[in-house]
Amino acid sequence: MSVTSTKNKDLDIHSKVEQLVRKLTLEEKFLLLSNHNEQSAFSSTPIGRLGIPSLEMTDGPLGVSWHSSNRRGTRFPATICLSATWDRNLSQLMGEAIGREAREAGKRLLLAPGVNIHRTPLNGRTFEYMSEDPYLTKEIAIPYVRGVQKQGVGACLKHFAANNQETNRRTSSSEIDERTLHEIYLRPFKEIVQEAEPWSIMGSYNKINGKYVYENTHLLRRVLMKEWGFDGFVLTDWDATEYMHDAAICIKSGLSLEMPRPHCYRLELLRASFEKGEFTESMLDDVVGRFLRIFFLTGILTPKENSDDKRGDSTQHPSLARRIAEEGLVLLKNDRMLLPLRLQKTRRIALLGPNLDVKFGRPQYGGSSAVVPPYEITPLQGIRERSEGNIDLVNDASNADIAVIFAGLNHDKGKDSESEDRESFDLPQDQAELIKKTAQDNADTIVILISGSPIGMEDWLREVPTVLEAWYPGMEGGRAIANVLFGDVNPSGKLPITFPRRLRDSPAHSGKGNRTYPGDENLKVHYEEGINVGYRFFDTMSIEPNFPFGFGMSYTSFEYQKLRVDKKRIKSMKDHLVVSIDITNSGPVNGSEVIQVYASQNQSEVQRPLRELVGFEKIMLRPRQTSSLSVTVQAKDLAYYDGEKHRWRLAAGEVELHVGSSSRCDFLSETIVCYED
Ligand code: GLC
């Protein structure tokens, strides 16, 4: 759609919304601010008199959830697996697929994606979010949002903001300085709002610096709506306003929809507050109008548009789910090139471990993101199918050519699950024992982790030659894992999150006591690490992780040559430059590589992390193929947030651009100069 026609479309919708708002009575406007239907937790209130239907919504980031749709949906891999693909195109395809399935379920708002930054490896919802890095998070989320909304279904960016742990999520306050808040925790929301225009945003449970987002007029009205230009609507997380009682402050702040039931927006509270003049009808019209905008964007006000939403679960996307699992799987260690399996020498494989034959797709298993698929292929089923009866599958490692242990976590409380954080950073003791025993029984032991967050490996990593992180790989996960083991697929995933050696190495856990995590006696979580979250912390503090951000091995190898840039000077925030490099597949098989660009600006007067991701591209190469690849680096991604001037700025001085295969590698580097804007 051309720019003018998009602008006309927006003007057209804006005037239609205004016309509709003018027809509503005051009472009807109050009704629209919350869900008054006790029978459903995923609907808004219809206004039959004016033909306004209920807006039907569904979770979640991994697909259309069972509990909000009674539909079996494609169970995609966990969102962290999607970001581990570093593949923007796959993310858009996933968004489009979930959008199609949501429409078939009669839903026009998808409560996804979750874009909260990984601050602690213990966060129970790490599997549902994208990365410790704001740049990677926004680069994967932008195409996802575009994909969903391309289907006429609204995306809902969540949870706004700084919801970085589950412990005390409804009562804690994230205590963050302004620069850190903007540069790390708000940045994905800002970039996604401005590049993908999500039709809605879900507020978080937690407070930020002592205020709930729903009473934070500055954050919503000034920052989100005025400065970033967000013209969608804000809704609560479920019962997130249960401890609040002030309707007027929520209206003034810009809250349009209280789900799944009224608290501040109970009719009697609204009437009383309005009568007292605590808010005006024009303030009310703004939040109601923002909500009604999605009815025009989805077209559900016109019966024809609504009619093609058939109810059912015939639309499925298993092959896309498998592709994402295959591309998101990360090969962490592969000594002696144990993988891919040498089929002529492998007659017997020992298959062990608690995650060998587990189906994770159960109602609300892991929380609101749970998707129940029509089927789910476990690793055991995938390997059995792929070995086609030509290989003995046994459970005795001492009497096998190779042993494969499926370890990791699950969605039980205290592991990778919503509403509680992980109890431990390490594997359960019995799993660590199993790994060590198996490695003694068979030197060729492979560990495959099925999990959604980094795991401590100190007491067994040296015992095993090969480790893969398969995340929660979705309904086709068993086939994806088998394809990688047998060499049909060459793994190309890269870690979107640092795997620390010890929990205390992690920025949220390196402080004293509970201040930095899970919070002090006043339930305040002090983000004392500031902007040094994830690899920013490990690099700046020179702490060696087990596996760094951006790391992932391949069955082939790549060589980088001839780094060049198309300009040496960046003069304004609107500027950009192009980094080009020749990359060769110097190994024996086809493979995909993620070329990453990091920026260092350590001479400027502003304290900056040692390195920050500012660009990446993924490319597939045949053996001995050389290709010249370009990565565009936007000036705004080189900027920092000035807490005193309350704005993003370029710092004057030299910037080193490092190009490589992870955040810690033998980089090729170039120096450019940034001018202060
Ligand atoms: C939950 C989650 C949110 C989800 C909502 C509806 O509490 O925090 O992500 O979309 O409620 O299930």
Brief digest:
With 677 residues, this protein is an alpha/beta fold. 27% of the residues lie in helices and 19% in strands. The chain starts with a helix and ends with a strand.
By DSSP (H or I, 4+ residues per run), the number of helices equals 16
Sheet-strand content, in percent, reads 15-25%
**Which sequence of strands runs across the widest sheet?**
1-2-3-5-8-9
Radius of gyration using CA atoms only: 25 Å
Determine the mean pLDDT.
96
Kindly describe this structure:
The structure is a single chain. The longest helix is centred in the first third of the chain and has 21 residues, at 3-23. This protein has 16 helices and 26 strands. The mean pLDDT is 96. The strands form six sheets. Strands 1-2-3-5-8-9 form a six-stranded parallel β-sheet. Among the domains are: 315-512, Rossmann fold (3-Layer(aba) Sandwich), CATH 3.40.50; 558-674, Immunoglobulins (Immunoglobulin-like), CATH 2.60.40. The chain is an alpha/beta fold and 677 residues long. It is 27% helix and 19% strand. Helix 4 (88-104) runs parallel beside helix 5. The chain is globular. The chain binds alpha-D-glucopyranose.
Q: Keywords, please?
A:
Rossmann fold; binds alpha-D-glucopyranose; 677 residues; alpha/beta; 19% strand
How is the secondary structure organized here?
Blueprint: H1 3-23, H2 26-32, E1 57-58, H3 79-84, H4 88-104, E2 109-110, H5 134-150, E3 154-160, E4 173-175, H6 178-196, E5 200-203, E6 207-208, E7 211-212, H7 217-227, E8 233-235, H8 247-253, E9 255-257, H9 267-275, H10 281-298, H11 303-307, H12 318-328, E10 330-334, E11 348-352, H13 379-387, E12 392-394, E13 402-408, H14 429-441, E14 445-450, E15 466-469, H15 477-485, E16 524-526, H16 535-540, E17 558-565, E18 569-570, E19 576-585, E20 591-600, E21 612-621, E22 626-634, E23 640-642, E24 647-649, E25 653-660, E26 668-674
Alpha-D-glucopyranose binds next to loops.
